[in-house]
Write a structure and sequence with these properties.
Layout (H helix, E strand, L loop, with lengths): L18 H13 L13 H9 L1 H8 L1
Helix pairs in contact: 1-2
Organism: Zestosphaera tikiterensis
InterPro entries: P-loop_NTPase
Protein name: ATPase domain-containing protein
């Protein structure tokens, strides 16, 4: 297994050391209809959205 996988993380266990960011993202989803995730390229924005929103679970169940 390589040290760095370029694909977005889809499982919260794989997206480590970002608990604070995931909780803040989830709190934002509960408060507002629009949550902006911004950051530098390749910093995990897509991984944050997939793991924090549960969107990946929804997509996997519909297939």
């Amino acid at each position: 297994m390589p040290y760095f996988d370029p694909e977005p993380k889809k499982c919260r266990e794989d997206f480590f050391n970002a608990e604070k960011e995931v909780e803040e993202f989830k709190r934002g989803l509960n408060v507002s209809k629009l949550v902006v995730v911004s950051g530098l390229r390749r910093y995990g924005k897509t991984s944050l959205i997939l793991t924090g929103s549960g969107l990946n679970d929804t997509l996997n169940h519909s297939q």
